[in-house]
What we know:
Layout: H1 14-17, H2 23-37, H3 47-57, H4 62-78, H5 85-95, H6 100-113, H7 117-125, H8 129-136, H9 141-154, H10 158-166, H11 170-176, H12 182-194, H13 199-207, H14 210-216, H15 223-236, H16 240-249, H17 253-260, H18 266-279, H19 283-291, H20 295-302, H21 307-320, H22 327-332, H23 336-342, H24 349-362, H25 367-375, H26 378-385, H27 391-404, H28 411-416, H29 420-426, H30 432-446, H31 454-458, H32 466-475, H33 480-495, H34 499-506, H35 509-520, E1 537-540, E2 543-545, H36 551-571, H37 599-610
Antiparallel strand pairs: 1-2
Amino acid sequence: xxxxxxxxxxxxxxxxxxxxxxxxxxxxxxxxxxxxxxxxxxxxxxxxxxxxxxxxxxxxxxxxxxxxxxxxxxxxxxxxxxxxxxxxxxxxxxxxxxxxxxxxxxxxxxxxxxxxxxxxxxxxxxxxxxxxxxxxxxxxxxxxxxxxxxxxxxxxxxxxxxxxxxxxxxxxxxxxxxxxxxxxxxxxxxxxxxxxxxxxxxxxxxxxxxxxxxxxxxxxxxxxxxxxxxxxxxxxxxxxxxxxxxxxxxxxxxxxxxxxxxxxxxxxxxxxxxxxxxxxxxxxxxxxxxxxxxxxxxxxxxxxxxxxxxxxxxxxxxxxxxxxxxxxxxxxxxxxxxxxxxxxxxxxxxxxxxxxxxxxxxxxxxxxxxxxxxxxxxxxxxxxxxxxxxxxxxxxxxxxxxxxxxxxxxxxxxxxxxxxxxxxxxxxxxxxxxxxxxxxxxxxxxxxxxxxxxxxxxxxxxxxxxxxxxxxxxxxxxxxxxxxxxxxxxxxxxxxxxxxxxxxxxxxxxxxxxxxxxxxxxxxxxxxxxxxxxxxxxxxxxxxxxxxxxxxxxxxxxxxxxxxxxxxxxxxxxxxxxxxxxxxxxxxxxxxxxxxxxxxxxxxxxxxxxxxxxx
Length: 615
């Protein structure tokens, strides 16, 4: 809080007051002078010192009120502690004075006391907002400054925010944010920022007209004001309705935030990137950030040694990469190597997740981009790290491999790199998402992989029981999604007509027993309800489709595929069957938090994303 207390408002010598003072006032003045001379050992918040200050505060003599207010301001500047009503009542009474000197010093004292959490609540409960709002409307800049500063401090407590919003303070705060006095401007924008931490208060701020004021102040020469406004707008942009309002009313917002990523202040750079990240939840802003040259400063921030900058830039690029039109510009701007390097950034899991999710998004639409990502070394880095990174990063990495494995041209290369050697152990992960994504990647690799299926034979029994153990586990899983992936993958492997692979499958009693069981008698439906719209379902024998089938219908498809496996292993392959694996739907990943459904629906959604390559 910027304070504007200024110097002393008048002498405190007893002789100046004696002709006009009441007896108790003269005694209070004498006592206060003595206490001030011994201020280092005096507790002014209790006993006789507080009684002397209280007497002077409630005096009708404005000079005595000035002395009391200045004393409170000076004392609280040096020492802040939790106080009671007996201390706050005289300070709040001084706020009602018509004298600017008294108002200024009293609001400074109250702002100092409002640093303490318990005091914040007591000040509001005792009615402190009303006189502070009156002082914000004062024509005196010094009074405005201290009153707004006090509101800023009070607004740091969550329990006060709603009270402040309902008190009528937002409109004067918004007006004072445009003050020509930089101290007032800092305090007002700081208060507005403190009011942006809940949805209800954000909507009230927007209604009070704060958005155009905050946007205009992004160009302030003061870095504190820039920081407060950038952070406030970042919080406001969390809400979709507010982003739409910003999109229609603030055409220069993106340009201003892009410029602030080159600010001299690291905290301003960081908040500008975070504001752009939140805006980039919407397609319009994803395109605008690229259009207005936001990629260059984002790339520079990714190379920073300051973690908050790296994190904010990585989160922003992740959202920008959601739009298919941005994939090639991001790759062509030189982001691949820094993103791949960040996969090893083990001091922050979130940075790793943002980096790998961005790579997955960049691979979604274009064969060219998939090839560029593999050529840049992403798969080698994933293979090196994936078994040791945190589960959340494993999930993203395996999903990325699943998307890359959609490319028929890249499958032989991925198999040659030995990617199956790390995917197979992860099908037995403690995380169902990692299990599903790893299985999806293996399934994608198995479809039209190459003329040579030797890489699958090489991992049939190892590592960790190999491909064989993974298929057995998934076939016997209680989740039909896992059963579905397993039978579909086996069909793809058999359609390759590799003698050794076919023999491996045919000669496994446990594998064939599971297949026969699934073919002969599908398990009874658990629900018959419609599936989650993001789940995987089998549209034909060789295409995954997203058609909203019931569990019962999905189980019937598993039985159909299982019978097909029996045909391919025992009765020969039927003529005219294809082996194309196409995926419909999209699974682009965004940096935001969403609500989770039940584990089954979440698993299916995760596998759907892993198997997805479209938009």
